[in-house]
Amino acid sequence: MLLTQEQIASANKANLETLAQLSRKAFDGVEKLMELNLQVATTLMQENVAHMQDVSKAKDIKEYMGMQAHFVQPMAEKAMAYCRHFYSIANQTQTSINEVTKADMQKRTTEMQKLLSDLISQTPSSSDTTVNLIKQAVANANTAFESSQKAVKQALDMSSHQAHTASESALKASEKLFKSAVAN
What we know:
Layout: H1 5-55, H2 61-122, H3 128-183
Helix pairs in contact: 1-2, 2-3
């Protein structure tokens, strides 16, 4: 059974639709990251200007150093918040892309099964072995895809957990460092 021109055109159209969906999901993620970075840059600029105005009013070096210490102290916490937000956006984008990919794979699997059904109905009964081999190959491909999807999800979950743990550890270490610097 040869593919018809309509089937080829339909497959090409489906490929383009999937590519467009994936591109939109990736662009949405990039857009969210740009918004986050612009928000951070605006906030940093405003805080730096306010800090410079405050520091310019310092009466002596001790007051100046105290102002600097209090300005720098929340930076680690802000950096951790930025990292958490960044990982959240990245994770959401990856999840969206995985959903599109999974839906596309399920659609293609259904189409392949229909095509195989049509092929099987047109094949003589003497080629049962070939038909069974094709069915097994499709089943194996589906299993491999599902396993890879699970592995990707586990890797993302583990990466997110490790990033969160590292962020918390760094935040605690910076707080200890700040407290010891202020105490001296």
